[in-house]
Write a structure and sequence with these properties.
The protein has 169 residues and is mainly α. Helix 1 packs parallel to helix 4 and helix 2 runs antiparallel to helix 4. The chain contains 5 helices and 2 strands; from the N terminus they run αββαααα. A two-stranded antiparallel ribbon has the order 1-2.
């Protein structure tokens, strides 16, 4: 079965475009200075001005998910099929299955890029929200997002392993 690569690729492009549009559109409403954390007493620490925040987090949102997706999904297309590091490698490294293995890696790479993008955008929104009037410490919410990302990453890895350990139908 060939994976539908277009779905996660279009979703990744859409999430990235929406994230960048959000930085451009909502960036002007961000506080002049944003605290990136709080210390044990609850005092805000590690300040960054609005323009630098938009540049750093906008660049991170644009580049990191694309880099992750490219390393998992695009780089294997430049390598010989014998270099693929997948479970059940003897089955997938054959000439007739190499393209299918690369398609699956592109599929999983794009989904990993989507997960990364959602985590970055959610954490960025929590930081901005925490810097609003009367907002508290976003630490618990950011920890929850990090935990949800970790769970999603485990599920992603389980699904990837499951696809590659079973021979293609």
């Amino acid at each position: 079965m060939k994976p539908r690569v277009s779905v996660p690729v279009f979703l990744l492009v859409g999430l990235t475009a929406a994230g960048l549009a959000g930085f451009v559109y909502f960036g002007q409403t961000f506080p002049i200075e944003l605290a990136l954390g709080v210390d044990a007493s609850g005092a805000r620490v590690r300040w960054m001005d609005r323009v630098m925040f938009i540049v750093v987090f906008g660049s991170l949102s644009f580049m990191l998910p694309a880099f992750v997706a490219a390393m998992v999904g695009v780089l294997p297309r430049a390598l010989p099929v014998s270099a693929l590091l997948v479970p059940n490698a003897a089955y997938w490294r054959t000439a007739e299955r190499g393209d299918l293995a690369r398609d699956w890696l592109l599929y999983f790479g794009a989904w990993l890029g989507c997960l990364t993008q959602v985590a970055i955008l959610t954490m960025t929104a929590l930081i901005v929200r925490a810097n609003g009037a009367g907002a508290g410490d976003p630490g618990a919410a950011i920890t929850t997002v990090g935990a949800a990302f970790a769970v999603a990453l485990v599920l992603w890895a389980w699904r990837l392993h499951r696809v590659f350990t079973r021979p293609a139908a």
